[in-house]
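Pasting as-is:
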Amino acid sequence: MEVQAEMEPSSSISLVSAVSYGIASMAMVFINKAVIMQYPHSMTVLTLQQLATSLLIHFGRRMGYTRAKGIDLATAKKLLPVSVFYNANVAFALASLKGVNIPMYIAIKRLTPLAVLISGVLFGKGKPTTQVALSVLLTAAGCVIAALGDFSFDLFGYGLALTSVFFQTMYLVLVEKSGAEDGLSSIEIMFYNSFLSLPFLSFLIIVTGEFPNSLSLLLAKCSYLPFLVILILSLVMGIVLNFTMFLCTIVNSALTTTIVGVLKGVGSTTLGFVLLGGVEVHALNVSGLVVNTAGGVWYSYAKYRQKKAKPAKLLSDLEAHKK
């Protein structure tokens, strides 16, 4: 009975959290791309998203809609690295969307599982299975092939996207560790993350020269209703994405979150060729994206089989102890 109590949350909660994150993540790519195409100040957009998240959770807590605790200094110190890596990831990802089309952006972000696996080996989580290793290599090979056929190749944009992969890996691993060790809920981690982000982001938009020009441009742009709707949608979806991402990582794992990201990329890649433009279709580019997607699907299947086999192994271990 004690073993049962310590097992993972119900499969329905795990599934809902994973699907919700997948939908929110896919929608956010297109919404951010739409905003950046009209408003190039990506750091200001990120600051507004984090400010909206902080205010929503704060007033929700004061009004009794959430049981999230207030700011604790000791906990804030522990979660400071999570906030730094999270904002670095989003900042580099948003900046990369200026020069990288959506299909290629998603192909590059599919390298995250490779980074997570490498970090797992470095932190003593063991070596991956043969199928997982091969599927990750296939995904990486597809990314390289697609890049060779990308006529709109932007070296700087690619560098920014690859850097965001590194930071995404780090914060996912830290979120998984924080949720397990400190017993924090997804809303509490999200609150700390957004609150701790504000001084860091405010400093960056001043140093990079975005502020105050970004504010005056934003006010001017908001008089245009379609942009205002997209901006508000971006703020709302930023909150939804943060919540579902932290929930998925805590309820499942950092690796599961990256798997969901890979699967949602299939739909995003297809839509990316049709929506928002910026993609020159070429046989090599398309072939690379197909290989990249196939590797992602294979990877997801391999991890599903691996996770499904674990309860059976646990049961056999319990039976062995009984004997």
